From TrEMBL:
GO terms for molecular function: ATP binding; ATP hydrolysis activity; transmembrane transporter activity. It comes from Neoroseomonas soli. It holds the Pfam family TOBE_2. This is ABC transporter ATP-binding protein. GO terms for cellular component: ATP-binding cassette (ABC) transporter complex. Residues 5-235 form the ABC transporter domain. GO terms for biological process: putrescine transport. Keywords: ATP-binding, Cell inner membrane, Cell membrane, Membrane, Nucleotide-binding, Translocase, Transport.
Amino acid sequence: MKPLLRAEALTKRFGGTLALDALDLEIAEGEFFALLGGSGSGKSTLLRIIAGFETPDSGRLLLDGHDIAATPPWARPVNMMFQSYALFPHMNVADNVAYGLRRAGVARADVTGRVASALAMVGLSGFERRKPHQLSGGQRQRVALARSLVMRPRLLLLDEPLGALDAGLRERTGFELRALQRETGAAFVMVTHDQEEALALADRVALLDGGRIAQVGAPRAIYERPASRFVARFLGAANVLEGRAMEGRFDSAEAGATFAGDIPAHTAAIALRPERIRVAVAAEGANTARGVVEDVAFRGDDSLVLVRLTGGATLRVAHAEEDGAPPMRGADVYLAWDAEAVVALPA
């Protein structure tokens, strides 16, 4: 896909705090892109720089090859939907959606048609005369989205767009958001701290840590093949075990186990996802371990089983309900996993 937006060595400080550290990033036309990270990772700062609400201390921000780092927000073909939705309480739905068009000097006849089209797109036809306080949280979110889409931006920025919704509505609205992105063809850039949200909605995900990108790629790729200990632990809370690689094997004293798989000589640690580990009747050799169950927590589709291994490390194991009752606390267990589940991590 053709690059729409490119960040080159973007750096931003707030006093003595380095928010962005020479960050490089490309976002393609028509892409749904997620910026994921914990508090202080730099994701919101990057979003505000793209929107024009912050100016980088150094580096370039290129839109279609033109540096827009010094361009004011109103002059960019970029719209932003805020987490709070920021609707005008004294205006009805139609006027809230039309606000940007009127400020831009769009003809009244065109405003009416574009507002109607935007509200139809988000499923709010017939709500034109309602005030924000007469709407549910999900409906207010849709009004804010319609207000952004009515401007026909090349790039739409979403700041925690589903954060104010309850769990059931989050999932449904997320799929609707994805469908709208496909329908409009605009590039969407979403900031979120919710990894499930990022993995479910985005074409690509950038995981930020300390103002830098720890890893960027398709959701499945970065989940299954994390590039570092940080990525492995942040996405899906993988088990990370230290040890030493030798001749295609990895010996971990803290696990009391040997891991076999695609393990380069420079490997300093391995990652193993909880859902890739199974409780076995008996097991021995490589890619097996023994331990004692320390705790069990029911999670709906599965149970999280914490197993203290013979080497002293604790392994997180996701035991599926379809596999029967999980082992009891205090039980001695055997664990096993396939070689493909072992992910080598660099030093």
